[in-house]
Design a protein that fits this description.
Elements: E1 5-11, H1 18-26, E2 33-40, H2 46-51, E3 58-63, H3 68-78, E4 83-86, E5 92-93, H4 97-108, E6 113-116, E7 119-122, H5 142-151, E8 163-164, H6 165-171, H7 182-193, E9 196-199, E10 205-208, H8 222-242, H9 246-263, H10 268-280, H11 292-301, H12 303-331
Parallel strand pairs: 1-2, 1-4, 2-3, 6-9, 7-10
Antiparallel strand pairs: 4-8, 5-10
């Protein structure tokens, strides 16, 4: 008998996109699956929309609003699958995503193998997504995967992973104390328990850009900055627990430098801790540099306004792009339709 795969969907105020997400889960060609949605205290029509899919085998559970990590922990407590497929309530899976990863697993994997696949951004029109490979799109050891991610400022979207029950239990629960990068920290622990990552090149995931509404968006939130710094400290600890070599220390130092601008200069305590961590790694952090278009603002108006401009202007541009893409999406009659078979 083929393994049961649990597709787990935390949902909060996701009424605009949940239909398409659920369709992408239901239409998975891997037949032996269960689909569970936890509605995390939504105040819109998310719950009512989800209940319409109960007749198609989707299980719906509700709870008071506790955040995405708590909803994911609830999902883990409910599922029975031998493999776990995480899926945010606005993202999409290609119909053969799980099947392609299970094929790779059968050919060259074990229950301690972590499966990944390609992903691409989209706004409303998924067929406009461009799959651009990164150095993480290949088979890698846990050390090399984490080192590339941290040193080159890369990541894999949550839905790309297919995780065995063995790895899930070894990793433990999602950290409900992290307001940001909880997925990055969680999959670090999954990686630590794994025997390596196998990449399935046809297992595509479509990641919807939602701008400042995204949980991963830090913006100017001090709480999210503090949570991200805590995640960074854990990343460094996890990587060095696997290998504490010169190349790892250099990678961690570059990781700190990559993110220093997020905290500089306002979060003085975090900046100081970052510098102390850098010294413990055998290096020093340089003063972060703004992009040239914001450096002029800094020269005239100071760091504060320059940092706000660097956060707000890209968000404003993305908002305009989303509005335009949404209009084109509606014009093409794809408001609810979700058919990826021709593109997968």
């Amino acid at each position: 008998m083929k393994p049961l795969v649990s597709i787990l969907i935390p949902a909060f105020n996701a009424q605009e996109f949940l239909v398409e997400t659920l369709r992408s889960a239901i239409e998975q060609t891997w037949e032996r699956k269960e689909i569970i949605v936890v509605d995390d205290g939504s105040s819109d029509q998310t719950l009512a929309i989800a209940r319409k899919f109960e007749g198609e085998g989707v299980r719906i559970v509700t709870q008071k609003n506790q955040g995405a990590a708590a909803a994911r922990n609830r999902l883990l407590s409910l599922c029975q699958g031998e493999y776990i497929q995480w899926l945010d309530a606005d993202d999409l899976l290609a119909p053969n995503k799980i099947a392609q990863q299970m094929k790779v697993l059968e050919e060259r994997g074990s229950k301690r193998t972590l499966l990944s696949g390609p992903w691409a951004y989209f706004l409303y029109r998924y067929d406009r997504a461009k799959f651009i490979p990164t150095p993480l799109w290949c088979d890698l050891t846990p050390v090399d995967w984490l080192l590339r991610k941290m040193q080159q400022n890369l990541h894999m979207q949550t839905a790309t992973w297919l995780v065995s029950r063995d790895l899930t239990e070894a990793a433990g629960h999602w950290n409900t104390q992290l307001l940001g990068d909880d997925d990055g920290e969680y999959f670090c622990r999954v990686l630590l328990a794994s025997d390596g990552v196998k990449f399935a090149p046809e297992a595509k995931v479509y990641y919807r850009l939602s701008g400042s509404a995204s949980l991963s968006h830090i913006g100017q939130s001090q709480k999210k900055m503090e949570a991200h710094w805590r995640s960074m400290e854990l990343h460094i600890r996890y990587l060095r627990s696997l290998e504490d070599s010169e190349r790892v220390r250099a990678g961690c130092l570059q990781y700190l430098q990559n993110w220093l601008l997020t905290f500089y200069p306002g979060m003085t305590e975090i900046v100081q801790r970052a510098r102390e961590t850098a010294r413990s790694l055998g290096g020093e952090l340089a003063v972060p540099q703004l992009r040239w278009k914001y450096a002029g603002i800094k020269a005239i108006f100071g760091w504060g306004l320059a940092k706000r401009a660097q956060v707000l202007l890209p968000s404003a541009r993305l908002s305009l792009r989303r509005s335009w893409d949404k209009a084109l999406f509606r014009m093409q009659g794809r408001r609810i339709a979700w058919h990826l078979r021709k593109t997968s």
